[in-house]
């Protein structure tokens, strides 16, 4: 019998079904299960592992908001790869004026040029601003945590159809049926949930096909070291045999449509490098493009989107995973509060309002990189100017702030300069950090000066109240922190309690 919303009583009724056990689906499941929601993940692939998720192809740069999110849930320390990994894509050849901190369109910026004093609310002992991870390890740590929290993960079951009503969503995987109050599509760039639920996916078509390949090269001396922009594209041999290429073919090639053969990769490399280099063996290869599209709405009734299902763009600058994990951190507590009837009016809609503009910024960041990488004289001229700007102190600081996500914030309507930003990781006198107090996923009203009324306000909204003194308070006296670590309100001196109650009421339901 097929599950419908009419015969739902015959089926297990989950709070949320998540389509896709990629990093975003898994992290969202952890957030929802932490808030005690019942979660089923349906995952198309039978097995979680693939060579493309393992090093070197599975290398993923994590930026500040992601690192903070993992830290605030006690997951950061479980990642072993970042503790030991040397970046295999870092070029070892050529002069190194100083340590590279990141890049924009392949143009590096360096640590010794970055003026971190411009980020007034970042404490020196806070988590790293960037880190290298491995996709396979990240997924396995998240899957372990999700299962420990009671999440059911069913692998080898692809979502194939869905119907929603005002009460719930019926989800089909072939002839199997499942029912939930909500469905979240975390099923990647070709999201079936997005297509079936009829989300509009608007954006721009690609300029190039990107290739990542592991090959044996018979005559590697024919290739130049490092990243090489040529009249027909770009090639980059990071280590012997690890190739990245960009072919400005309008994104015509996709590995899902045609196999990537040794002959194809060799022909391409010869054309782009203008050599007669010989590839003697092709071990593994994948393609990607700079197609940039974004769902115009992240919610349709009881169906939501997160991660690549909601937005796609080129992996240049490595931001897609970070963007998707940011979606999950933003959505998890809001959806949980909605399910548990603890949400104030409009809370769930703020997921789209906050995350859509951040996604749009990342799409534009990736488009801007492509614009100056094109193999034409106009792009080269612009590339040279950006190169010069990035080597100034203000330039490097700006690019680091954007690439590391240190400047990421939501427009929550002003007030204190911290509002809308990630809360600083204050250290208490006993050595505990604020991040360590956030493992339970609750909002916090932090009182650094023992204001009597703050505890009362916390009680009115069911917010956890913490008071104490911290080593470096950055001039702040009290802070209201959402479960995702974003500052909702802050005061440097005696609080304005009506402002505080207004802010609290935007994110937490007043207790009756
Ligand atoms: C070469 C390359 C390098 C990159 N480097 C970086 C980087 O350094 N930093 C960064 O932030 N990002 C990077 N990215 C982007 C990043 O990998 C993605 O943005 C990220 O994996 C998206 O996670 P996701 O969970 O949304 O989707 P995915 O990782 O695509 O996971 C989706 C899951 O859904 C499953 N699925 C698909 N269809 C269905 C269905 N119908 N039913 C059920 N399950 C389904 C899939 O099997 C998969 O497990 C890179 C991408 C590429 C290609």
From TrEMBL:
A GO molecular function term, named singly, is: oxidoreductase activity, acting on paired donors, with incorporation or reduction of molecular oxygen, NAD(P)H as one donor, and incorporation of one atom of oxygen
InterPro entries, per the entry: FAD-bd (IPR002938), FAD/NAD-bd_sf (IPR036188), RIFMO-like (IPR050641)
* Flavoprotein keyword on record: yes
Q: Which cofactor does it need?
A: FAD
Q: Which Pfam families match?
A: FAD_binding_3 (PF01494), Rng_hyd_C (PF21274)
Keyword tags: FAD, Flavoprotein
Q: Is Flavoprotein tagged as a keyword?
A: yes
What's the domain of life for this entry?
Bacteria
The FAD-binding domain extends over: 14-366
Protein name per Swiss-Prot or TrEMBL: FAD-dependent oxidoreductase
